[in-house]
Amino acid sequence: MHIKVKRGWEMPERLATPEAVFLNRRALLGASLGMAAASLAAGPASAAVPGEGTGAVKTADLYPAKRNPAFTLDRAVTPERYSADYNNFYEYGTNKTVTPGSNALKPQPWTIKIDGLVEKPFEIGFEDLVRKMALEERLYRHRCVEAWSMAVPWTGFPLSALVALAKPTGDAKYIQMQTFLDKAMAPGQRAFFYPWPYTEGLTMAEANNDLAFMVTGVYGKPLLNQFGAPLRLAVPWKYGFKSVKSINRITFTAERPKTFWEGLQASEYGFWANVNPAVPHPRWSQASERVLGTDERVPTLIYNGYGAQVADLYKGLEKERLFA
Ligand SMILES: Nc1nc2c(c(=O)[nH]1)N[C@H]1C(S)=C(S)[C@@H](COP(=O)(O)O)O[C@H]1N2
Ligand SMILES: [Mo]
Question: Which N-terminal residues, if any, form the signal peptide (predicted)?
Answer without folding.
Answer: 1-47
